[in-house]
Design a protein that fits this description.
By secondary structure, the protein is an alpha/beta fold. It has nine helices and nine strands. A seven-stranded mixed sheet has the order 2-4-3-5-7-8-9, sandwiched between helices. The protein has a two-stranded parallel ribbon with strand order 1-6. Helix 2 crosses helix 5 (about 105-120) and helix 5 (about 105-120) packs across helix 6.
């Protein structure tokens, strides 16, 4: 089975177009849409990169940004849709369905955001972490798994540094997508953060089963804890969600905020 997946992965990569955009161009396109929330003062501050789910940026992510800033870190909320002109409706139809912008391609946004932060005087790029929700977690995990020789073709970016993830010390994976198209649990992470946590919502009926893939990833040596949030659904932080499968859970949200503070303290 592993041999089949390796062959399928090679086929997918060989069919993808070669890099068509430079890293600097992606930074120029992405940076106007980066939302930065940071403490008072000049810094440098540790940086937390925040990657939204397939539905796009949501207000609860800005609340997470405020929590990060109050804890002493700069939050960089990465909007992967604005520069691509993907509307919320289009995102549900194409990204959430897997037809467009899969995790390994979107990994280029994380690489670009991290390189952008290295150029900011208020940022300490050697103390960085990343948190992703659903599709954002898929993006982070694929970014960690991509081999150096795959990166340009997978992300469509040229001019990447020798180590695009340099300084990434921790990850938080919130109700992560780990199924078809994801590399989660199927190969070792090429770049392994020192610590991390994965949050599995007990009543998540959107991303499907995730625990098995996460356990396989840990068995391959990835350092993160798996926490099951009881009575929580997908997007349990979203008190404006219209999806009947989503239910706002303030206790789970407060627990997530606490985990973010813990991650920042560990940087």
């Amino acid at each position: 089975m592993r041999g089949f997946f390796a062959a399928l992965t090679l086929l997918i990569f060989s069919a993808m177009p070669a890099a068509a955009e430079t890293l600097d161009h992606r930074i120029a396109q992405l940076s106007p849409h980066l939302r930065v929330m940071r403490p008072e003062g000049a810094g440098p501050f540790p940086v937390v990169f925040m990657l939204h789910g397939c539905g796009g940026p949501r207000p609860f992510i800005e609340e997470m940004g405020r929590v990060a800033a109050e804890a002493g870190a700069a939050a960089v909320i990465v909007d992967s849709y604005a520069h691509r002109r993907i509307s919320r409706i289009a995102a549900y139809a194409t990204v959430c369905s897997g037809a467009r912008l899969q995790g390994r391609e979107r990994a280029g946004d994380l690489y670009a955001a991290m390189e952008w932060a290295r150029r900011q005087p208020w940022a300490d790029p050697e103390r960085a972490s990343a948190i992703g929700w659903s599709h954002g977690s898929w993006t982070i995990m694929d970014a960690l798994a991509l081999r150096r020789e795959e990166m340009e073709r997978a992300t469509g970016l040229s001019g990447l540094s020798d180590e695009p993830l340099r300084g990434l010390d921790g990850v938080m994976l919130v109700y992560p997508y780990t199924n078809v198209g994801s590399l989660a649990g199927r190969r070792d992470w090429r770049f392994a953060p020192r610590h991390g946590v994965a949050i599995v919502a007990e009543h998540d009926y959107i991303v499907g089963p995730t625990r098995g893939a996460l356990e396989r990833q840990r068995a391959r040596g990835a350092a993160f804890d798996i926490l099951v949030f009881e009575n929580a659904t997908h997007a349990f932080e979203d008190n404006e969600a219209m999806d009947v499968r989503v239910r706002y859970n303030p206790a789970a949200t407060a627990r997530e905020h606490g985990l973010l503070r813990d991650m920042i303290r560990a940087l």
